[in-house]
């Protein structure tokens, strides 16, 4: 029985996106594809324990789902209408691009016509196979709200006649960046959950983001930023076992027990970073962030970290992403290399743009503490605690404030 459960779990993980994508291609309707795929897996749960796991689970699920879809169309007696509705969303992929139904599905779910939150929800449902209750719990909204969000996203795709295809060569770079942004947003929500009352780290979301990014890398081999994002996620996820203390407090990088870090994930992340460096192609944002994390995870402790290399990488990143958040992170590296005073000068210049961003106040508080300006540090810690949305992070900030005496 346990073997059947494992087979069902594996089939869902490996075949869900393929089944949904194949049905979407055939019937041109995300609603039909989603419902028929879900019914096929429900049927498998009922029949596989009695009949045994089929030799080709993916083929079995696809065949069953196709029959379910046809049955639904016949029941509704709207087959002609459904076929007409399919025309706006179905298209062919140019022959010079990879022709994979899953890739078409990813680009459809991450289409820029949809709001960012809808792209995330639809991708997790249609590509990741998460249920609506699971996605609702992940983003701390009522199940009915999340269901409506996904329903509206599918309706928008149909109404806007979003083509079910891989973008043209000219549009591909911009569209891939949108897909990666959705995956990065999903990972970040798991890496440091923002909602009160949730666990500080959501491994279910980080694992799903990594799995979907692996899929994109497999479908777009050699894509630098996709590879860079995967490396970044792996090197960040590797530190997860050391990020929360037994008391539920977020543990800063300089205080983490590095023996707890996941060595295989670090090794894979380092390999991906080296592969991208070997191409000698100018790196993008995710590749540079991955390289920064590779430097961090190469050091045995904080003192041995090559801060000059990290600062040089941030200087490179600033040239392609001049956001205040990148500048803030650069200042943190500068503090380790040149001391807190020049770093604080850099941070202070960001105050107008990051006034509502709690890491700004936490960084400023830490630099003020290191300079012995404790009264100012307490005020900055108070503001960071007020803005922080994660209970584990709030606990860590509160402890640092109390240590000021």
TrEMBL record:
Domain RNA polymerase sigma factor 70 region 4 type, first and last residues per copy: 106-157
Recorded superkingdom: Bacteria
Keywords, comma-separated and alphabetical: Sigma factor, Transcription, Transcription regulation
Biased composition annotated in UniProt, kind: Basic and acidic residues: 74-88
GO biological process terms, semicolon-separated: DNA-templated transcription initiation
Pfam family, one: DUF6596
GO molecular function: DNA binding; sigma factor activity
Keyword Transcription regulation assigned: yes
Annotated segments matching region Disordered: 48-67, 74-95
Family designation: Belongs to the sigma-70 factor family. ECF subfamily.
Organism, as annotated: Amycolatopsis dendrobii
Protein name, as recorded: RNA polymerase sigma factor
InterPro entries the record matches: DUF6596 (IPR046531), RNA_pol_sigma70_r2 (IPR007627), RNA_pol_sigma70_r4_t2 (IPR013249), RNA_pol_sigma_r2 (IPR013325), RNA_pol_sigma_r3/r4-like (IPR013324), TPR-like_helical_dom_sf (IPR011990), WH-like_DNA-bd_sf (IPR036388)
Record domain RNA polymerase sigma-70 region: where: 19-78
DUF6596 domain boundaries: 175-275
